[in-house]
C-alpha cells in the first residue's frame, strides 16, 4: 500500500513533470519564432534567417547592381547569411540553455525534429487515494 507521504510525493512529481513539459513547449515556440537580420557595412545587402539558418528574406538596395560586381554581391549575400545564422544560433542557445545545457542545438532542431517528439503527453494527477 502507498502511504500518505508517498502519495503526496507522487502528486508533486506529476505536477513537476507537467510544469516542465509546459516550459519546454514554451521554449520551442520561442525558438520557432527566432530570426536574425544582418546588414552589410555598406547597407547594400540585408539578409534575415530563421532558427535553422533558413533564409527568409534577402533585401538588396536598388543601387547594388551599380556598386557591386556579381561576385562581390554574391560574396556579400553569403557573408550576411553566415552572420545572421550565427546570431540566431546564439539566440537559440540562450533560449535553450536552461533546459539543455551543453547539448548541440543541431541535434534538437535538425530537419523534421521538434520537442513534442521527445515529450510524453501531460500526466494526470492520481485521483483520490484508494481505500486501504
TrEMBL record:
<dbReference type="Pfam" id="PF02575">
    <property type="entry name" value="YbaB_DNA_bd"/>
</dbReference>
<protein>
    <submittedName>
        <fullName>YbaB/EbfC family DNA-binding protein</fullName>
    </submittedName>
</protein>
<feature type="region of interest" description="Disordered">
    <location>
        <begin position="31"/>
        <end position="53"/>
    </location>
</feature>
<dbReference type="InterPro" id="IPR004401">
    <property type="entry name" value="YbaB/EbfC"/>
</dbReference>
<keyword id="KW-0238">DNA-binding</keyword>
<dbReference type="InterPro" id="IPR036894">
    <property type="entry name" value="YbaB-like_sf"/>
</dbReference>
<dbReference type="GO" id="GO:0003677">
    <property type="term" value="F:DNA binding"/>
</dbReference>
Amino acid at each position: 500500500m502507498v502511504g500518505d507521504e508517498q502519495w503526496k510525493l507522487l502528486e508533486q512529481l506529476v505536477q513537476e513533470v507537467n510544469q516542465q513539459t509546459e516550459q519546454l513547449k514554451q521554449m520551442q515556440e520561442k525558438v520557432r519564432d527566432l530570426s536574425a537580420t544582418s546588414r552589410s557595412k555598406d547597407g547594400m545587402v540585408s539578409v534575415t534567417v530563421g532558427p535553422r539558418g533558413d533564409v527568409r528574406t534577402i533585401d538588396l538596395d536598388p543601387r547594388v547592381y551599380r556598386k557591386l560586381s556579381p561576385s562581390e554581391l554574391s560574396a556579400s549575400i553569403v557573408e550576411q547569411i553566415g552572420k545572421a545564422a550565427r546570431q540566431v544560433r546564439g539566440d537559440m542557445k540562450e533560449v535553450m540553455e536552461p533546459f539543455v545545457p551543453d547539448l548541440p542545438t543541431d541535434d534538437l532542431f535538425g530537419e523534421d525534429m521538434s520537442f513534442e517528439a521527445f515529450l510524453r503527453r501531460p500526466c494526470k494527477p492520481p485521483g483520490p487515494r484508494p481505500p486501504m
